[in-house]
Amino acid sequence: MKIVPDTSVIIDGRISRGVESGDYAGATVYVPEAVVGEIESQANKGRQTGWEGLEELQRLAELADAGEIDVEYVGERATEEQIKRAAAGAIDAVIRDVAQEHDALFVTSDIVQAEVAKGKGIDVEYLEPEARELEELGIEQYFDEQTMSVHLKDGVVPMAKRGDVGDIQYQAIGETELDTETLKEYASEIYDTARRDDDAFIELSEEGMTIAQIRDMRIAMAEPPFSDGFEITAVRPIVKTTMEDYTHTEDLKERLLERDRGVLIAGAPGAGKSTFAQAVAEFLDDSGYVVKTMEKPRDLDVEKDITQYTELGGSMEKTADSLLMVRPDYTIYDEVRKTDDFEVFSDMRLAGVGMVGVVHATRPIDALQRLVGRVELGMIPQIVDTVVYIEEGDVNTVYDVTTEVKVPEGLMEEDLARPVIQVKDFETGKPAYEIYTFNRQVVTVPLEEGGAETEETGVDRLAKNEIEREIQAATRGPVEVELRGKNEAVVYVSEDEISHVIGKGGGRIQDIEERLGMNIDVRTLDELPSGSRGSSSGAGSSAGGAGAEPQGEVVTPEITSRHVILPLEKGRSGETVEVQADGEYLFTATVSRGGDIKVSRGSAIAEELERAIDREQQITVVANE
Which residue intervals make up region (Disordered) (predicted)? Predict the structure, then answer.
């Protein structure tokens, strides 16, 4: 009896078991060198299938030494190009040629390979892939009802994240350090289960890193050289919820059913964002909507009729293109992190698909800030009209996002009207923030309530700095600004500068008042109330002076013919920041996609910034809290 096995049955160990059962006793086994090359390539890439194939080859050699079979290695070794094209059938063709050449029984558990071989007149034995009962994995011994994730690494005691949602603690769950051998046994079991079971699959397989999904567990296995040691991390949801389990969701459910929405679910890591997203997905599905998910990896615990998609050809953009053909009513995007993710989210939303995205954010408003700089400002309310902030496993805040052409809150002059994004508390309807363009920069202004005792708001700072810039055009001396109300301010300048600021017949100050829509009283610096000096970023400030201690990232401005450029560290694109000179506020800006802040020369902001540079003040960029 002559046998030619393909790669699938070598990896499965089916030939050695056939010999031991008597089915292939005394057979001559022709092992194609192409199979050996494919298995060796997989083992070199750290894939468990490669190691399992090598173990089977060793068992066949032992059976040959015992005289139970004959083993011959035949054919040409697969080339690197053929191995790369294995999925396209390049190696399969070489193996079939070997079976035909030796007039041998071709044994495979690959149905496509079997059918092609039959079509070429080759004698084929197709072995049905073995269906194994999904037993408990070795790593599951580390889980209990309150365990969200298990972290196993060689040379370290087992660790886990345990507790209730919103109160998760990272803690040791054993006293004995793990060794590599034990972890490899766990990994082998995981690989085997993920390849064979209907309720499991390999999500990602790269050199040094494999991610598997088994039942409700997402398991990541890392090994050198990708990591500094062998490591297994297994994560699973500790609770499954419905929208009835959350507070403030009755009106939110009605909102989701009114029409297809753009929703961002935000919160800190471990707050329960994905758990809430799962509840939203199943609520929409139960309400008669077609719901799909986009995940990498796929780990949302949703009902079977909600199809979960991952990257298509390594790209979520391709996944989105496919979903647009499927036309779901809602798509759950878990998680939206990179600029590409936000662009895909935006494109699908603008195509009319209801979108629910999960984003990391430490404040509700930060979820919207992630869109600033990534999409056109005026499009944000069309992309996201609802923000749901999750804290300690429950709905903490819901924002309604709309746009309106109006004068921003705190500014008075009608000429200052512009498109303003209004962010309102969904439950009370009260405005919480306004987002708009001010002096060519996108600003996010909190709308705080209170009287004269209230801390200075973002609008106050904008107003004070705009007044100061106007006054600075009429004087080179120090300027201090004190707001007395929404449309009234007092300006303090040097005594010998008052006449320049007021102008002949009061013409200059009247022009400034008309431009700003405010009444301005001009006084000398001697009349400035005690303790008020230095409250604004006037020309009188100097490096090392009475200003606040500089904080944040220190930058070195670059001045070109058209711009003043503030280059920043990588990774700050889209972030809303304050620019300061020696710790004194200058303006608020949004970091561009290129990772810098550009201010057009000739603008009031650029003039103020250049004056600070000329005075050799330290320019810093501080995250806007």
Answer: 525-558
Which residue carries 């008669």 as its tokens?
Answer: 288
Q: Give 238's contacts (C-beta < 8 A, 6+ positions apart).
A: 145, 146, 147, 148, 165
Q: Give the model's confidence band at 320: pLDDT under 50 very low, under 70 low, under 90 confident, else very high.
A: very high
- At residue 262, φ and ψ (nearest 5 deg) are -110, 110
330-385 confidence digits (pLDDT tens): 999 988 988 889 999 999 999 999 999 999 888 899 889 888 878 888 899 999 99
Rounded CA-CA distance 401/386 in Å is 6
Token look-up 């999925």 returns: 87
Specify if 321 maps to a domain.
Answer: yes
User: Residue 181, preceding bond cis, omega within 30 degrees?
Assistant: no
Q: Rounded to an integer, what distance in angstroms lies between the CA atom of residue 277 and that of residue 624?
A: 28
Give the dihedral sign, CA 95/98/41/212.
Answer: positive
**Beta carbons of 53 and 32 less than 8 angstroms apart:** no
Residue carrying the six token digits 């004087």: 475
Which structural domain range is residue 75 located in?
A: 2-126
CA 173 – CA 79 distance, rounded (Å): 48
Evaluate whether 187 touches 232 at the Cβ level (below 8 Å): yes
Number of residues assigned to the chain: 625
Whether residues 315 and 332 share a domain: the answer is yes
| In a shared domain, residues 389 and 247 | yes
The strand pair at 354-360 and 330-334 is best described as: parallel
What are residue 373's phi and psi, to 5 degrees? 90, -20
Does residue 566 lie in a domain region?
yes
The residues near 38 (Cβ < 8 Å, ≥ 6 apart) are: 7, 78, 83, 86, 91
Q: Which residues pair with 152 in a beta bridge?
A: 232
Q: Are residues 514 and 400 in the same domain?
A: no
Shared-domain flag, residues 57 and 155:
no
Mean pLDDT of the residues in the chain: 83
What pLDDT score was predicted for residue 624? Answer: 66
User: Are the C-beta atoms of 230 and 222 separated by less than 8 Å?
Assistant: yes
- In this structure, are strands 200-206 and 209-214 parallel, antiparallel, or unpaired? antiparallel
| Beta bridge mates, 519 | 488
Last residue of a domain, one of 212, 235, 258: 235
Residue 223: which CATH number? 3.30.450.90
> Could you tell me if 379 and 257 lie in one domain?
yes
**Residue at which a domain ends, from 209, 235, 261:** 235
pLDDT at 512 exceeding the cut of 90: no
SS3 breakdown of the chain: % helix, strand, coil, rounded to 5?
35, 30, 35
Which pLDDT score is estimated for 16?
92
Q: How far out from the chain centre does Cα 196 lie?
A: 31
Instruction: Give the pLDDT band of residue 540 (cuts 50, 70, 90).
Output: very low
Q: In the β-sheet with 209-214, what is the strand arrangement from edge to edge? A: 167-172, 159-164, 147-153, 231-235, 217-222, 209-214, 200-206
Across 327-478, the runs of DSSP E, i.e. the strands, are: 330-334, 354-360, 386-391, 394-406, 418-425, 431-438, 441-446
Q: What is the pLDDT of residues 155-193, one digit of tens each?
A: 999 999 988 765 778 899 999 999 988 998 898 888 878
